[in-house]
């Protein structure tokens, strides 16, 4: 075959696009049920021990979580003082749910319901059951709410989540739509409906719902910002993706998902300095994130910083979790060695990468360019033949 010369390293690195690995779909968000505030009529009507019990619960409310584990003791003391007041049991159940102690929480919710069959108590129990995927039991409680309030938006959303979980997506869409009609200024049903649309491949409809949730939350709905950013990224609308992901990263600086996705958006938009900073931030938050490490290495290759890649991976063939490096990881490490003038090491790393994943075209093209530079015609022609075969992936 006639060999057409290619620029050595530019050919080897022409596919240097950041790897995008976020899950395609996000989970539906549960509808939060707030604790009851006991400052008004309950306090006025309370007498003797019950009045002291209410004061204890007020103390918990005013502490805004600063009491730590002492909250449990105060709730128990309040219940001992006034076991017949369902609001105290309900608030204690909410505290237990927040601690993921759902069995005990459900017991307290049920005791509150036995005293007074209120919608709030039924919703609290249903929410706890839904958290534990006890869908049939949760459905029963939500249906009891609907008997009392046919258009209760929280119950409609809970039933929609159960419908989606049990495979009836069309019913779930109908229930979320009804919840939106009842409560059009609530962000959560818009977000949840967006998730369902995304799962159906209706991305324009999903984006509309995500943006509606963002607007209704004064641009503070993290999950909607993230999902919208990922959809824009998949549509190659990088500036729109960056806008949403930057906002999410600003709102929550401790979640590595946001700078990780933001780095991909920056890299694909050609904003390489910002991409490097975003990937480094993601790695600082999650040192075990090997995909982001590869993405950072690709950006360092694009900005001609091969020595930094060698520092990134050090002189090792295993990563932090002690498992062998992947084909992609070996590839970026090989190109870095090549760029600093060590083609022998690059060849060894690329051959190992090829053996791990024979269909990796980045590796094959790098080997073609490397063997051309080294004058190894037979090996070069072998890999040129491989590059013409369709990928099996």
- Round the Cα radius of gyration to an integer and report it: 28 Å
Q: Quote the distance from N terminus to C terminus.
A: 26 Å
Which bin fits the share of residues in helices?
Answer: 55-70%
Shape: elongated
- Poorly predicted ranges (pLDDT <50, ≥5 residues)? 1-15
**What fold name stands as the CATH topology of the domain at 306-393?**
Serine Threonine Protein Phosphatase 5, Tetratricopeptide repeat
Secondary-structure arrangement, i.e. CATH architecture of the domain at 306-393: Alpha Horseshoe
- Major sheet size, sense and barrel closure: none
Structural class: mainly alpha
CATH superfamily membership of the domain at 306-393: Tetratricopeptide repeat domain
| Main CATH class of the domain at 306-393 | Mainly Alpha
Beta strands, count = 0
What is the residue-mean pLDDT, rounded to a whole number? 86
The fraction of residues assigned to DSSP E strands is: under 5%
Write the H/E string, N to C: HHHHHHHHHHHHHHHHHHHHHH
Number of helices: 22
